[in-house]
Amino acid sequence: MSQTFTKAMARNIFYGGSVFFFLLFLALTFDTNSALPERDNRGAITEEVARGKAVWEENNCIGCHTLLGEGAYFAPELGNVYTRFGNSTEAIKGFIQSRPKEGVPGRRSMPQFNLSEEDLNAVAEFLKYSSEINTANWPPNIQG
Amino acid sequence: MHDHRTYPPGDLAIWIFILAELLVFAIFFAAYAFTRVGHVELFNTYQQTLDTNAALANTLALITSSYFVMRAVAAIREDNIKHCVRWLIAAIVMGLLFLLIKSAEYAQHYSHGINLRTNIFYMFYLSLTFFHFMHVIMGMVILASVAFMARRGKYSAADHTGVHTGASYWHMVDMVWLILFPLVYVMR
Amino acid sequence: MKYQSQAVAKPYFVAAIGLFVGQILFGVILGLQYVIGDFLFPEIPFNVARMVHTNLLIVWLLFGFMGASYYLVPEESETELFSPKLALITFWVFLVAGALTVLGYLLVPYATLAEMTGNSLLPTMGREFLEQPTITKIGIVIVALAFIFNIGMTVLKGRKTVVSLVLLIGLVGLAVFFLFSFYNPDNLVLDKYYWWWVVHLWVEGVWELILGSILAFVLIKTTGVDREVIEKWLYVIIALALITGIIGTGHHYYWIGAPEYWQWWGSIFSALEPLPFFMMTVFAFNMVNRRRRNHPNQAAVLWALGTAVMAFLGAGVWGFMHTLAPINYYTHGTQITAAHGHMAFYGAYVMIVLTMISYAMPMLRGRDAANSGMSQVVEMWSFWLMTVSMVFITLFLTGAGVLQTYLQRYTDDPMPFMVVQEKIEIFYWMREVAGVVFLLGLFVYIASFFIGGKEPEEA
Prior knowledge:
The complex is a heterotrimer. By secondary structure, chain A is an all-alpha fold. Chain A has 2 domains: 1-38; 43-144, Cytochrome c-like domain (Cytochrome Bc1 Complex, Chain D, domain 2). Chain A has helices spanning 7-35, 47-58, 81-84, 89-97, 117-131, and strands at 66-67, 70-71. Chain A has a two-stranded antiparallel sheet. Chain B is an all-alpha fold. Chain B is built from 6 helices and no strands. Chain B has helices at 12-38, 40-47, 52-77, 81-111, 120-151, 161-186. Chain B is elongated. By secondary structure, chain C is mostly helical. Chain C has a domain at 295-459: Cytochrome C Oxidase, Chain A. In chain C, 75% of the residues lie in helices and 0% in strands. Chain C has helices spanning 9-35, 46-77, 84-107, 110-116, 134-157, 162-178, 188-223, 227-248, 262-271, 274-289, 298-321, 325-331, 335-364, 373-410, 417-423, 425-448. The chains are: A mainly alpha, B mainly alpha, C mainly alpha. Chains in contact: A-B, A-C, B-C. Chains A and C meet through helix 1, helix 2, strand 1 and strand 2 of A and helix 2, helix 4, helix 7, helix 8 and helix 9 of C.
């Protein structure tokens, strides 16, 4: 093929292609936005759940755990922990509360965060809310 | 730089890009066909709700526009800049007609509450046609810039690679529709 | 060194390497915590070590990008940097802010750090890679703006080359997308959706423009191939990067609550994301084969070629392996992700910064175009030590991930997470050994700067 391949054409393809796909991405984002209310369980976002998310963030739970598969891979997935613990916020609270301060010798250990009763309730409610988001049937099973 | 009727016409870069585009569409078409095998009933049922008359009109619009683009290339080969520009504009108008008909179809669907999430058939139908729709817009932008540059005397019988390049892209957009139309609207 | 102001790149490169060492030290700590679970607990719990490791990575890469820009833009623009003084001020601001942040992570509990830094006024902490206090994030924005201003003004007053322009677009994109880190809604799905506008659109988007432009610069300088050819290919590569990568963002939207059509859009487009990396590999080898000169800095050429190959393997191939939705359904959030992440970051971004440092440092140190033969040999040893050990880290984590996916996700009788972690421990031990070798390679790398100084330089 003896036709030259000009830099200008490559440049045009770059600019044209980038703008094209960015616009397409915006269109899909717009559609996603309208679709979310029926999937993201936002009706369950009470002030307590919002506080729970803040507790989750302030203690950097994501630094060891995954939530909906995203995060660190040191400790279990917590998106479905509510279900895994028998649909019980009390069980979640109990687990967090009972972490030994000095850890478990030789084993991966979760810190004792000394959370207030209020914050414990909040983070448990947050995890309950998370478990009811429509994640297209993920994770594949109860183990997360 | 002489145009020696080398093959393929137009800048090589656009052909790499066209091949890439065709690859993406091919993957999409394959995904459609593959998915249909598992949902034959559903696909057949909802296919009935599509407006084949509108699609036919769109097919005619695009074929006509490709013809106009060919006339534009022929015109510039004879150094007839004025006619080249006119044929390009005619092609763009046909493209606009396509967009209008397609938009009317979309409006119909949305008024019935149909969107990307309604079911797997509509997901494919809307995704495929919208992806193509955006390529028609892109093609019109390219033809318009070619027409603009032709007006400003950038092309001649001796050197009109840009016109070939734009024409090739437009023909690709047309060709994709010629596969899409029977695959999605007609084939059962 | 053609322009005096290019000298400001040196402190940036030195800081980058220093922080790189910190990052790997913490990496080795993390690897040990995987197998000796309470190592350094509770003084440095896993999550703290991890945020130090990842944040140091990002910060040292940013120092590297800035140093690379301060070096190459004056040369490309054929004019002195707009304000070397501003560059030095931003250097210290960034370094001090970064150091304070890392100290904050280590010295106080994270929740306390959040309180101390007024996180509740505008909560942005507590998300992966974005653990920085809000005030640090604001500091990053200011540093980024000052940097882009400086570089932008330099390009404006001088020659505008494709290399500079692509670099600038990448850097502006970096800054713009970072702004999404300030958006932290209560809605977890929305939170995750836009979090990826920072992370994906960085590393699988605008950072590829930065990578491409630096690689193009180094290839122009070391091969002597015509700029027109190299710049043309740069456009092709970045076009493919954005054309595939923008919709490719959808491969993060499969299981987070977004509509299910993303499984189709994301799979199709992200499957094509290896293409630009493939082109980059073909491009790099092609340019070197067509070279018109044998540049004395062979180490830099090795780094450049290595970057293309490792980026293709780590980002392209390993990424492809788990990008299709039906596969990702089982591998999402497993050690497969960690395997891909390590090789991708090392291959693409660590290596391009090291490529640039390899090319520029001799001149920044007042030497000729390259270090002495002995110095280069040591540097090349460090290349192989780090690169090969990274390959092994990735292979071992892939093994861990495959077994984990089978035992925890795929089998009819899935086992709990912690049980599976114990079963794959052998892979973690092997990974740690490879990690220590990597650290050794890094020490050899540092040594290369101090070895062979009295040898005659390569002319």
